[in-house]
Design goal:
F-box domain-containing protein
């Protein structure tokens, strides 16, 4: 009987030991899961922190300037609104000088205000955009340009003979209009004293429109 009792006790002990092992194994497994979950959460938090960081602070001013130079004007203008630091970078003349050149390329008229020495290029670009929305010309517009013209075929032959356009000897004649109502011509122009009158002024107005 004693031997049988001992065997039963040993068996019970083995069972208890096995149960303890299983419980311990489960606890370790749960612990590993908690640790993995914790690591995953920490990684996600780190990623969120990285994503929430200001690119200007991460990349620095010089690299951000290079990036902004490759964006279109509208995108750069929107970046001005991000923060004061972004405004300081996105308003740089090194960016807007190129934008102004692109905007003015092939244009017959560039506003005088946009060309004022010392004016920030961002302001020059903005003024040019606003000026381009005008639907009427001004007296200042007429005086801003060197106007090319030639006589019409209906004028007397005397005038046509003086006109390089009809003789094919030189470029078109120029006229410069001034705010006081006067007009001048290039040096050496034989028609300097000619009043354009009703013949040329309508043509000039058409050219402005």
């Amino acid at each position: 009987m004693e031997l049988q009792e001992m065997e039963e006790k040993l068996q019970n002990g083995d069972v208890l030991l096995e149960v303890k092992k299983k419980k311990k194994k489960k606890r370790r497994k749960k612990k590993r899961k908690r640790e993995k979950r914790k690591e995953k959460i920490e990684e996600e938090e780190e990623e969120e922190v990285e994503l929430s960081q200001d690119p200007l602070e991460v990349l620095g001013r010089d690299i951000m300037l290079m990036i902004l130079k490759n964006l279109d004007a509208r995108s750069v203008a929107l970046s001005l609104l991000v923060s004061r630091a972004w405004h300081g970078v996105a308003s740089s003349d090194s960016i807007w000088s190129a934008k102004c050149e692109e905007l003015w390329l092939g244009k017959a008229h560039i506003p005088h205000l946009a060309l004022v020495q010392g004016l920030p290029k961002l302001a020059a670009y903005s003024l040019s955009i606003m000026d381009g929305k005008r639907t009427r010309i001004t007296k200042e517009d007429l005086c801003d340009h060197a106007w090319e013209f030639h006589f019409n075929k209906v004028v007397p032959e005397y005038w046509r003979n003086l006109d390089p356009y009809w003789k094919g000897t030189s470029p078109l004649m120029h006229r410069y209009f001034h705010t006081d109502g006067s007009q001048t011509a290039d040096p050496g122009d034989k028609e300097t004293g000619l009043e354009l009158g009703n013949v040329q002024r309508p043509l000039l107005l058409l050219q402005c429109s």
